[in-house]
Each structure stands twice: as C-alpha cells, then as structure tokens.
Specification:
The structure holds two protein chains of two kinds. Chain A is mainly alpha-helical. Chain A contains eight helices and three strands; from the N terminus they run ββααβαααααα. Classes of the chains: A mainly alpha, B alpha+beta.
C-alpha cells in the first residue's frame, strides 16, 4: 500500500546468494511471481527469490526499471519503444548470460523478457555447428559414430554454410 | 553452464528455421525425437504463423526459387529431389507443402526437402464418344483430420463444342496414401475462374457467374473436410462486365481482385464466410503505376501497413495502404517471369523419407557390388 504522501512503495528482493536489492513495487511486479508474492502478503519483509543469483537479479532489475520508465504515449508507439529496449537489452549478452536470463525470466514469470531472450538465443544458435550446440547447452552426444554419420547423411545439405569450429 | 529444462529448450527451438532444426537432429537422440515429433512440428508451424516469421515466396516458371520475405533481397534456386523438368506448375502452399503438377503429381516440402510421389490412379470412367479429357488438380489441408488432400478432376469435353460432357473426381488423402472417388465437383456452371486453386480454411474456391444476376458473380467453396459445395457472397456492387474479376488470398483473407484498363481494386473478406465483412483493401488507378493487366496479391508486411503484389508475373511491388503509394522490390536472381505464392517454412513431413533411405541402401549395395567386380577383373 502506498503511503499517504504518495511516494511509491519499494520492495526488497533477496537473491539465492543473499544479495539484497531495492526495487520500486510498480517495476517489480512486472514479474508475475513477485506480484503474486506481494498479494500473498510478502511486501512487508524481504522477498526471497530462490532461483535467481545476485548477478542475474541485478540485470533483471535494470530491465524492470528500464521498461517501466518508458512513458505510455500511445499503445503502438509505446510497444515499439519497449521492443527496442528489449532488443538492446539482450544485444550484447554472451550465451551463458542469456541462458541465466531465460531461466530467471521463466522463474520470475516475465513473459516479454523471456520471449526476447529466447528469440536472441535462437538468433545466436541459427548458423552454429552441432558441436557448438552440444557444448553450450551441456548436452552429451549419445549417438554412436555410425548413428551420428547416418543422421548427418539424412540432411547433408543442412551442414552447408555452417560456422565451422572444431567439431561439426 | 546452466542446463536448460526441456520446455525452455523447446521454446527456443520453435523459433529456428528448418535448416537449423534438421541439422540439430544430430545433437543428441533426445533432440532428434523432439524435432521429429508431430507435436513439435505443429508448435513450430504455429509459432511461424503467429509471429509472421519464416515466411517466403516460392516461385515457379523456370525452375523453382524461394525468397525470404523478411529481406526480399535474393532468390535461392531449389532443385527438387524428384524428377522435375523445370516448368511444371506448382500450387499454392499449405503449411509449407506444395503440390507439383507433374505426372504423377508430387507433394513437396521445399524447405525440409521431404516429398511424396502420389500413387498411380487410373481414370475409371469410360470416355464418352467424341470427347477428350482434361485433368486438373486442386490441393488443400483438412485441419479437422490433419490431412493433406489432393483433388483430381478429369473433365470429358466434346471434341468440337468443347462443352463438358462428364466429369470424374477423385480425392487423395496423404494420411491413407490412397485415392477414392467422390461426387464430381459441380460440372460446370459458367466458370469465371478456370480452377479451384484458391485455398483457405480447409476449402478450395472458385468463381462462377451468378445465375440471378447477369453482371454478378458468386464464390463456390468446396470443403475438404465435408466434401460438400456451398456458395459464398461476393462484395456487393461488382460488375463482371466492367472488370476482369478473380479470386485470390491476401495473407489470410479471401480476396477479390477486379482489374481493368483504368484501375485495380482488391477486396478482402475480413471474417471468413461473413458476407458483411468484405472491405476494400486498395483501389489504385493505372496512372499511379505502370499499368498491369494482372495483379496478384500476396502477403501483408509484418506491421500490416503494406501489401506485397505481383504484377504481370514480372514485377513485385509493396503497396503502402496508408500513403497509397507503390514501391518496386528488387530481388536478386529472380527469373524474368515468375509465378509467386506465399509459403511458410515448416517441418511438415510427407513420409517420403522411407523411400529415400531404401534408395540409398540399394545404391550403396550396387556400388559395393560393382567395385568388387572390377577388383576381380584386375
């Protein structure tokens, strides 16, 4: 509840590595998870976010503040500005950061942010090799060499124009 | 490195183009199962349609090209993996699948390169005396049964009068991979359009003269699900004596294109089947751009503020709906004459891969045998 003077309410968020952050409530409730916790009566104390670390939470908060600062001019123009902001927000993140972001956005139930991050990951992945994908996603190759060769043979043409690295 | 749960991986993968997804089948067995699954194919398609991504133009005429709609800069030639002489007609696309009108016809997904040669189907009816037959194909998707269907109409015409005497219609279902005879498509009211090539919402459509109005026309729809025909109302006030009128699809809307020496007018049916929902999309006078005898609407831009048109099968233009202006599109490598259709890139499978695998095994066995033979001689 806002005080009579009209100053915005701030919430305290705690990451899973015990870092504390102050965020204005109107920005914080961009996360449906946080909004639900507030409605359940958590606003008074500290809101614990068990699935986000401090480094990632700091970034998320930057996003929340940035997005809620965009003035609501007209629906279409506002949407355009927000989309620009999201594109810029994800533009210089490396893959590991993007992966942390998508997990955080999923946990915090922030669909627009998650959409922007997933889309960026897809764009980064598009021309990469099979080996790159395995490494970045931490996936073990469970094909035998013969099986792998057979699968690759089925769609040989898809390996043309792929960014080469150590294993294709 | 964080390990992403499968639903997040899926959310990322559904945004990728077909080429990347087919390659990533080699990442691990779990990824192959996911990418090949019917559920994911549909998820991927739904995402492409909803986000207006992975859209292309597919053009026939001399060879087949695809042009990515987001960039519209370069035409990529695609060589069909089945016998193709280069000039067979290619139908519109249904979820990324096209029908190639060769003998026999072939269902083809040009992005996944999967294809299905339709089984032989002889004409059962005896040809009437003094007649010749003309065969046409229609193609569509029955969403209720999740089935791709091909209709073959064999029209028997009188040798001298060219009037249609009899007609045999058969329908092919990809699901059952078989042909079956059905009641003939209404033969023939005075057709204004030579075929039923206009496909939307699980039905194919054509244009016929209106029996109650000499200046009017009526739309006929044939539902691929119920296999029945019913009429649909045209926008009011269109006079078929003043314009050359044709039916088409603009984006997801049924459209009526009216053109004459003075102008081109395109109407779109905002709500399929609702006669009141016809709205004028554009009306362009021939002064404002090089006059075209034939204008084919294709798709809307992502923002919905422009429409892509093909003029005389030789030129692509964007028409700005707000500014009412025309802008030429230059695509590198497009042939001089091209027949363009909009096509979404999809993973839809036609079950033809089995044939390819068998052929590969036979080829390898033959090559092994031949090499052995030479060794003996030496």
């Amino acid at each position: 509840m806002a005080a009579e003077t009209g100053t915005p309410t701030t919430l305290t968020l705690k990451s899973n590595d015990d870092e504390l952050f102050s965020v204005v409530e109107s920005a914080a409730i961009l996360s449906v998870t946080i909004r639900n916790m507030v409605e359940d009566g958590c606003a008074g104390g500290v809101i614990p976010l068990v699935n986000v670390d401090g480094k990632t939470l700091a970034r998320v908060i930057t996003y929340m503040n940035g997005i809620s600062a965009i003035p609501g001019v007209g629906a279409a123009a506002e949407e355009e500005k927000k989309k620009s902001y999201r594109d810029k927000f994800v533009s210089d993140m490396d893959f590991e950061t993007l992966a942390d972001m998508v997990l955080a956005a999923n946990y915090l139930n922030m669909s627009c942010l998650m959409d922007a991050v997933s889309a960026k990951i897809a764009r980064v992945m598009e021309k990469k090799s099979v080996g790159w994908v395995r490494r970045k996603f931490g996936i073990e190759n469970d094909y035998t060499p013969e099986e792998e060769a057979a699968v690759k043979e089925e769609h040989k043409w898809t390996f043309e124009g792929v960014e080469t690295d150590d294993d294709n | 490195m964080p390990n992403l749960p499968s639903e997040l991986v899926e959310d990322i993968l559904r945004r990728l183009p077909v080429k990347s997804l087919k390659r990533f089948r080699a990442v691990a067995k779990k990824w192959r199962s996911l990418i090949d699954s019917d559920r994911f194919v549909k998820l991927h398609l739904r995402h492409s349609l909803a986000s207006l991504s992975n859209r292309h133009l597919i053009t026939g005429g001399v060879g087949v090209c695809t042009v990515a709609l987001d960039s519209l800069d370069k035409a990529e030639y695609v060589i069909p993996p089945f016998r193709f002489n280069g000039s067979e007609e290619i139908s519109h696309s249904c979820n990324g699948v096209v029908l190639v009108m060769s003998q026999p016809p072939v269902l083809w997904n040009p992005f996944s390169r999967d294809y299905k040669i339709l089984p032989d189907c002889p004409v059962e009816s005896a040809a009437p005396a003094n007649s010749y037959s003309k065969t046409g194909y229609e193609f569509g998707y029955d969403s209720r049964n999740d089935d791709y269907k091909v209709i073959r109409v064999s029209d028997f015409r009188h040798k001298i009068t060219h009037a249609s005497i009899a007609n045999e219609t058969k329908i092919y279902s990809l699901k059952t991979n078989s042909w079956r005879r059905i009641d003939p498509l209404p033969s023939p009211p005075p057709y204004l359009q030579l075929n039923w090539h206009v496909h939307l919402n699980g039905a194919v459509h054509t244009l016929v003269e209106d029996p109650e109005n000499a200046n009017g026309a009526r739309i006929m729809c044939f539902s691929l699900e119920t296999e029945t025909v019913h009429p649909m109302k045209m926008p009011s006030g269109i006079n078929v004596r003043d314009f050359v009128v044709s039916l088409d699809v603009t984006g997801d809307f049924l459209s009526v294109v009216c053109s004459n020496k003075k102008r081109v007018v395109i109407w779109v049916m905002k709500e399929y089947g609702v006669a009141d929902s016809w709205a004028k999309l554009l009306s362009v006078s021939s002064h404002s751009y090089q006059r075209s005898d034939y204008v084919k609407p294709l798709v809307y831009s992502r923002r919905g503020d422009r429409v892509l048109l093909s003029c005389n099968d030789k030129r692509l233009v964007w028409y700005d709906l707000r500014k009412k202006s025309v802008r030429d599109v230059c695509v590198d490598g497009l042939p001089v004459v091209f027949y363009a259709e909009a096509c979404v890139e999809s993973l839809v499978s036609l079950g033809g891969r089995e044939k390819e695998k068998k052929k590969e095994t036979i080829r390898r066995k033959r090559d092994d045998f031949l090499s052995k033979g030479f060794k003996l001689v030496l």
